[in-house]
Amino acid sequence: MTDFAETKTLFHLPEGVVYLDGNSLGPLPKSAPARIAQAVEAEWGAELIGGWTKCGWMDQPTALGDRIGRLIGAAPGTTTIGDTLSIKVFQALSAALALRPDRRIVLTDMGNFPTDLYMAQSLLDALGQGHVLKAVAPEEVADHLGEDVAVLMLTQVDYRTGRRHDMAGLTAAAHEKGALTVWDLAHSAGAIAVNMIGTGADFCVGCTYKFLNAGPGAPAFISVAPQHAEKTEPILAGWLGHAAPFAFEPAYRAGLGIERFRVGTPPVLQMAALDAALDIWDGVDLAALEEKAATLGNLFINEVEARCPDLTLASPRDARHRGSQVSFRHPDGYPIMQALIADGVVGDFRAPDILRFGITPLYLDEADIRTATERIETVMKTRAYDLPEHREVKAVT
Predict the structure, then answer these.
(1) 184 is catalytic
(2) Catalytic residue among 356, 363, 368, 385
(3) Which of 206, 280, 305, 346 would bridge 189 by S-S if both were Cys, CB 3.0 to 4.6 A apart?
(4) CA-to-CA distance for 202 and 189, rounded, in angstroms?
(5) Which of 4, 19, 90, 113 is catalytic?
(6) Can the peptide bond before residue 266 be classed as cis, meaning omega within 30 degrees of 0?
(7) Strand residue runs (E) in the chain
(8) Torsion angle in degrees (nearest 10) through CA of 105, 109, 115, 117
(9) What is the set of domains in the chain, with CATH numbers?
(10) Exposed, middle or buried, 396 (CB in 10 Å: 0-12/13-18/19+)?
(11) Annotation says 209 is catalytic
């Protein structure tokens, strides 16, 4: 059984702050600074370029990928890390489309994260083969799965409301129609129990700076089902995806399996932070984590609704249908969130009117939830959000 009181001690959490924004950027693991310092001083500093071999830098993307693979239910040897989530979306979708050359529709939902939609449309435009990106209402996705759909591309947990797609059911429905699936797990990995093998998902991508707590700019991951890995020819043919990178051949030869999805030079210092963050997950039961998140999320909803009737629940009430976050709506959502941050309750705002709160049991407990809801009530009753400084829109919301 996971001891969440113990995991809370493993994070640096500023005094007096209730951090409800781990679904946007996870807090600093206490072990990360020393691990990064080791990479800087003992590895880079002492070994110089020898660090690539002596310190195992070159092999880390796959080794760290396997550690993430355990958290998303992926087969060993099918996950790697590197680049950004946008790049991994582009890679996964292009690979999936190449496996369905006679189909022209990419099906997604209108609530999908904008970068996924941007990357998809830019890919389809670049291909110039008549592909169409079809975005429908989230609850209508299954109804639009037809014989003309090449790929179903979805984010499992909606970034604004936390609404959760049925990954197993929709994957099965897509496969029944002959389509492949690309799942964005940005708000799933480290938040809920994911089973890539069990659901039959074809491609999964995600980031490591949210619930996995690897820090700002941490690398993304991609996982490819074993039956597809050797059949794909990545559209981004980077030198580290080559079968023999240091042969420096003029023509590209794809590496084995997931190795071909590597593109550029591994981010060594960010991988050090990720390595430290993943140590925390070694003792975490994901089913227990999801159950605890549901309990804390339900408490948060009940307390906010009892204390703040002007806030409207935007997330599914049933925890089985939401991820590890709770969102409320209010026309003054932005200044309300700024007032809350000033009072030590850190969440974030998503246009046009969403106040978003991450529910992360690794470092949040019932006392934190009650403290947060008391402060939310104070901000709402005193209308602290009417102060001019809270209405000044910042670059990052």
Answers:
(1) yes
(2) 356
(3) 206
(4) 16
(5) 113
(6) no
(7) 11-12, 18-19, 28-29, 79-81, 105-109, 132-136, 149-155, 180-184, 203-206, 221-224, 312-313, 325-329, 345-346, 348-350, 354-358
(8) 30
(9) 4-28+285-391 (3.90.1150.10), 32-281 (3.40.640.10)
(10) exposed
(11) yes
Burial 117-137 (b: 16+ CB within 10 A, else e): bebbeebbeeeeeebebebee
160 catalytic? Reply is: no
Beta-strand relationship, 348-350 and 354-358: antiparallel
Average confidence (pLDDT) per 10 residues, the chain, 397 residues: 94 97 98 98 97 96 98 98 97 97 97 96 97 97 97 98 97 98 98 97 98 97 96 89 93 94 96 98 95 98 98 97 98 98 97 97 98 98 95 87
Type of residue at 1: M
Active-site residue among 209, 328, 363, 385? 209
Residue pair 172/308 in contact by the 8 Å Cβ criterion: no
| CA-based nearest residue to 205, from 160, 238, 162, 156 | 156
Distances (CA, A) of 244 to 248, 254, 396: 7, 9, 41
The reported pLDDT for the residue numbered 395 is 85
Catalytic residue among 210, 260, 262, 350: 210
Which one of 66, 83, 158, 184 is the catalytic residue? 184
- Tokens, residue 130: 């008549």
